[in-house]
Amino acid sequence: AGLSTGTFFRLAQSKDLLLTTIMRHFINSVTSSWNSVLVTNSSPIEKLDAIAWININVLASFGSEFRIQLSWIRETPPEKEGDINQILGVLKQMDDLFAHGEISGYIKSFGVPSSTLSSSLFGLTWLVGEQDLNGREREVLKMTRASLLRGIFRS
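RESULT FIELD:
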């Protein structure tokens, strides 16, 4: 953009504000994608598969941002609850998705509460973020389908 690093940081009010702005955009983009999937007429398993695919692609495209976000939350929990509430809202929708999936016969929960299932799926699909995907997104999706989704699918 033709700015030196020094000029850039003089124009930004603070590094924390700059990081907050970048991370808020990242969170908004990801939760918007999840919400787009959750409101479709697809089956619960298809929705979970799509969410896993979104997460894999986000990590492939924005792995650095994801790792920055994790570090940032560990170091300084967000003062604005809005960012966390977006993620918690999606987790609540996933809880509902698991509950609906069990009632409709698509998902077997083995007696595990839907909140535990959604939190587990949420965490496990992000685990791959600790690795460099290097174009292996399809392989990771196959692994996710074979390990996570097949285990809850009622055939």
